[in-house]
Amino acid sequence: MNDALNNLNIFIDHSILHSDATEAEVRKTCEEARNWRFHSVVVNPIWVPLVRYDLRHSTVKVVTVCGFPLGANRTDIKVAEAMKAVSDGAQEIDMVANIGWLQAGDYSAAGEEIAEIKRRIPFNIMLKVIIECGLLSEEKQVEATKMVIDSGAQFIKTSTGFFGGVTVEQVQRIAKVVNRQIEIKAAGGIRTAELCGHLLEAGAQRLGCSTSVEIMRSLGLKQSSQN
Fold first, then answer.
1. DSSP 152-208
2. Active site (annotated) includes residue 118
3. How many CB atoms within 10 Å of residue 133?
4. What is the CA 132 to chain-centroid distance, rounded?
5. What is the residue-level pLDDT of the chain in tens, covering all 227 positions?
6. With contact defined as beta carbons under 8 Å apart, do 82 and 120 qualify?
7. Alpha carbon of 96 to those of 32, 69, 131, 146, 169: distances in Å?
8. What is the distance of C-alpha 37 from the center of its chain?
9. 61 given a catalytic annotation
10. Is 219 helix (H, G, I), strand (E, B) or coil?
11. Is 157 one of the catalytic residues?
12. Residues with Cβ < 8 Å from 201, sequence gap 6 or more?
């Protein structure tokens, strides 16, 4: 765990997804990501062009969300949103699966939607699928994970953070099903370095955090500017 925490920055998707985020706050988030060399900045779609511009001279990736946070948009709207995000400069997309379909056990419909989005975006764009673990039973978390694997997405993500935080047990459960076929992003309520370490140890390869800087400072690590 210590090795992972010493390089914690490379696992972090530095996120600013609250609805009242301002341009100044988004720019500050980009600056923090450059200074700490986080993996990416995650923003709502409206901010993708700005973030692409602000990160143009850095290695930090541009990530946005699709169907966020409810997952209840029509499939054609999700497809259009994902395609527009890519044209605006997004390199990775965190989409919310249709949680109502997952609750009803209609994994075929949910998987077809994900596969359609995957088909319509470039092959090199990372697609992460949020299954909102906090709203699903353990059995449905397992079945949803299988569905995401079959859909062709590269990542499964535990939650939006709007309906409860991630737990180590959720990541362990997903990791057992995934068996390294795809990767896992843990997100929702991650506010301590200790939890980061446990989530990585449980099988997560990426962490979605909004308090990333505070977590890094708690470890006594120093930022390394890319400016």
1. T-SEEE---SSS----HHHHHHHHHHHTTSSEEEEESS---HHHHHHHHHHT-SEEE
2. no
3. 29
4. 12
5. 567 898 999 999 999 999 999 999 999 999 999 999 999 999 999 999 999 999 999 999 999 999 999 999 999 999 999 999 999 999 999 999 999 999 999 999 999 999 999 999 999 999 999 999 999 999 999 999 999 999 999 999 999 999 999 999 999 999 999 999 999 999 999 999 999 999 999 999 999 999 999 999 999 987 865 54
6. yes
7. 26, 7, 7, 16, 21
8. 17
9. no
10. coil
11. yes
12. 1, 4
Phi and psi (nearest 5°) for 78? Answer: -60, -40
Catalytic residue among 78, 94, 128, 140: 94
Q: Which of 61, 118, 140, 157 is catalytic?
A: 157
Fold of 2-218: TIM Barrel (3.20.20)
- Is there a contact between 148 and 182 (Cβ–Cβ < 8 Å)? yes
Identify the sign of the CA torsion 84, 70, 41, 92.
negative
Residue 137 φ then ψ, to 5° = -65, 165
